[in-house]
């Protein structure tokens, strides 16, 4: 038995703060429990009533005879802690705290919530809420509507998590209106005890739940979310709305549920890494849910379009192509068969337009022919009703034919406000939309999800590294109150983690520079060494490709001259002499420690133009080899690494390896706040790939 069972599958419930007054939370919950025919017993608790809603009422939870699994608390916030004590003494292990006024209202509320959490822990309870609207379990064995939402939901396979209570009510109403069957619903509120992650884990193996929807405002533990969701999305899709996308929205979110929204790009990447489908609105959440709920995933991206009008077919075609789907190439047999049923002026090339000459019978026949074609993975059935009579017949045909092709994906676009037929289609397992674009967006999401399931899971690599050596260097820097590491320290750390670094040394004068250049027997680069100058080339602090002693001496003087002009010469701590690494492609690898998400890895095309080109991608560490590969492949300029116009490709496996080494470094060493390796010069051969410039900044602590 899972420790959430007392909350989700209780045999007995006490409602503390029960009320006789209609329209109050304490009364509506009792009403809903009864209306839903909860299979267990309920015990209203209120010292001022003998009975509520025809059920005997108790003055306190302790006076209820027998065992109670779950207590639903709706009393004013100042009474909550006392009530929890009583529940604890009674031995109750499950709680739903509906009451608001906790962390979401500021410091005082947060302190109260902290006390609540401690009590819960002390009694070994599990709690949903506070500041929530409750939960629903539609399982036949339970039939529990422990919310104050009035909606009647049909049974089904969708589980829903909502971080907002008010939105929860709207969501439930919408689900009911769309004929979506719900297995479970939980409004989790401030979630200091039972979190979204806990629910995902709980629903992972619940056989009633086949699809999970989430409305989120914040993440408690993003890393854990990725880990758990990854394990679910391979067999149960998760579709999520994460609000607080914009800066203004983020602020609204923090005042709302006491949560801070993370940077939106990172959220996107996080969902991608976890295989979670992110949608921008509740409306789209339902568009997608309808398709995933009622139809199988397509086996491929080839779509056939059948329409009784030309315009919508063209719109659907455009949307398909823009969403990464393709128009199915119809087989000769299909075309011949279509020729027999369609009017002579209709074309038999996908998209198929039955034209105004068509009727419901022709529509049905064409639909069947298209679905029988092995080149067709999914079907977009579009219909613009000219007459209502006709419309019902078409709807009947679609429903009937859908049943014959359970392995194919059929979505319908019924371009009218014909509520009756749309509802008929939806209740008969046909996801039905008003506009082609919404239908295509849902189909495209299904197709992406199909690809996700086929995708290699990837493995975490573990390189043999010198972690202790890095820790020693960092300890020393902290001891000297330095957050920026010196150039030689940075290169030493990179070396300890198996990165190849261009040969270099730091010198104090021209003679030393000339001597090192001579020793290298290669062209060199001179760079200013300074812990305060961030972009060395911006201030004339980098002199490249110096081939002779005199060039080295001139270069040395040039750096001093350039910095003096900018009054920066006082910041020169030395000069780095480095081997010149010629002719490679410049890659940037980096990491930024995000407050919410932890280390976020960046990769992109680098060099001094990185800020201008902005061709970079992010992933949350730790990364699998597959994440690293995908990161590179998602860059706009990835073809440059593969080689264009006869160029040889660079050693991409080395770039992937370096991303993984970086991931290991930032997971191993938590003190690193930022790393920037720019550029990492990459070539055709692994041994030529070298980092020529890197910075490391430490966390502002110890
Ligand atoms: P910063 O980023 O502080 O301006 P870099 O050391 O990255 O300084 O140097 C700026 C640019 O100079 C690099 O993007 C690269 O094009 C070039 N460069 C720097 N070091 C080398 C090197 N060792 N070999 C070849 N080119 C180099
Ligand atoms: Mg640089």
Overview of this protein structure:
The chain is α/β, with parallel strands linked by helices. 40% of the residues lie in helices and 21% in strands. The chain has 24 helices and 30 strands. The strands form six sheets. A seven-stranded mixed sheet has the order 9-8-11-10-12-13-14, with helices on both faces. Strands 15, 16, 17, 18, 19 and 20 form a six-stranded parallel sheet that branches. Strands 25, 26, 27, 28, 29 and 30 form a six-stranded antiparallel sheet that branches. Mean pLDDT is 91; it is low at 246-262. Magnesium ion binds at residues 678-679, 693.
Which whole number gives the mean pLDDT?
91
Shape: flat
Strand tally: 30
- Strand line-up of the largest beta sheet: 9-8-11-10-12-13-14
Query: How many individual helices?
Result: 24
Helix coverage percent of residues?
40-55%
Low-confidence stretches are: 246-262
Ligand types: adenosine-5'-diphosphate, magnesium ion
Text of the CATH class of the largest domain? Alpha Beta
User: How many domains is the backbone divided into?
Assistant: 4
Outline the biggest β-sheet: 7 strands, mixed
Task: Briefly note the structural class of the backbone.
Answer: alpha/beta
Question: How far do the termini sit from each other?
Answer: 43 Å
- Reported by name, the CATH topology of the largest domain is Rossmann fold
CATH architecture of the largest domain: 3-Layer(aba) Sandwich
CATH homologous superfamily annotation of the largest domain: NAD(P)-binding Rossmann-like Domain
Please tell me how large the radius of gyration is. 32 Å
Proportion of beta-strand residues: 15-25%
